[in-house]
Amino acid sequence: MWRFLIRKFSTSEMEFKVTEILKRFNTVDSSKITPTATFKEIGLDSLDSVEAIVAMEEILGIELSDEDALKINTIQEAINIFSKNPKN
Amino acid sequence: MNIVGIGIDICKVSRIASILEKPYGKRFISRVLHPCEIKNDLDYDFVASRWAAKEALVKALGYRLLPFTHVRINYNTLGQPIFLFTDTTEKLMSKYNTFLSISHEDQYTVAVVICLSIPSQTPPSI
């Protein structure tokens, strides 16, 4: 039972969750959301981007190192980096 | 000394307030502030000024991968804000002199950074 609770998200689940979190931001143009799009291209500035990453950490229950968080520039990078880190 | 770059950032304090009031506000603080800058009675202006100063530093350096948690801001004897660098940023920043100015007006905080390269200590060959 506990194994179920701490299991990792599949890539498609992670993609769905990351996308849903980004859509909550008023400045995001949902029509521009693609895996290769950068946070800037979909309408997030630097402050929004940091907020989006900490929101993802909080909602997904995954804590990133500063080093990993700074590597995130595109939606695909967010999906990959959150996927490789274990849930807390 | 040569100018490496100049950086400027403006931050609307209400945006910081909005983030800090969310469930992940504390997580945001621990991603943006140096541990020495974190205290119980953090006000929004303080966090906005730290954000603007560190963003301006990134722009002056042209280096996006600078962890904000390894940079702190203190004041010299003249009351001027100065950057202090720890951990991974200390070695990187040993090559530079930085100058910082911060200003507040109503709902906005502005920071400007000038970054200069420190000339090599090697004496010129004759």
The count of domains of chain B is 1
Strand residue percentage of chain B: 25-35%
* Broad shape of chain B: elongated
**Order of SSEs of chain A:** HHHHH
The outline of chain A comes out as globular
The number of helical elements of chain B comes to 4
GO molecular function, one term (chain A): acyl carrier activity
Protein name (chain A): Acyl carrier protein
InterPro entries (chain A): ACP, ACP-like_sf, PP-bd_ACP, Ppantetheine_attach_site
Family (chain A): Belongs to the acyl carrier protein (ACP) family.
Itemize the secondary structure elements and their pairings.
The complex is a heterodimer of chains A (about 90) and B (about 130).
Chain A: H1 2-5, H2 11-23, H3 46-60, H4 66-71, H5 75-84
Helix pairs in contact in A: 2-3, 2-5
Chain B: E1 2-12, H1 13-20, H2 25-32, H3 44-61, E2 71-75, E3 81-85, H4 88-93, E4 96-105, E5 108-117
Antiparallel strand pairs in B: 1-5, 2-3, 4-5
Helix pairs in contact in B: 1-3
Organism (chain A): Stentor coeruleus
Family (chain A): Belongs to the acyl carrier protein (ACP) family.
Protein name (chain A): Acyl carrier protein
Fold and architecture overview:
The complex is a heterodimer of chains A (about 90) and B (about 130). Chain A is mainly α and about 90 residues long. Chain A has five helices and no strands. Chain A has one domain (about 1-85): Non-ribosomal Peptide Synthetase Peptidyl Carrier Protein, Chain A (Orthogonal Bundle). Chain A has helices at about 1-5, 10-25, 45-60, 65-70, 75-85. In chain A, helix 2 (about 10-25) crosses helix 3 and helix 2 (about 10-25) crosses helix 5. The radius of gyration of chain A is 13 Å and the shape is globular. The two termini of chain A are about 15 Å apart. Chain B has one domain (about 1-115): Ribosomal Protein L22, Chain A, CATH 3.90.470. Helix content of chain B is about 30%, strand content about 35%. The interface of A and B includes residues 47 and 67 of A. Chain A: GO terms for molecular function: acyl binding; acyl carrier activity. Chain A: Belongs to the acyl carrier protein (ACP) family.
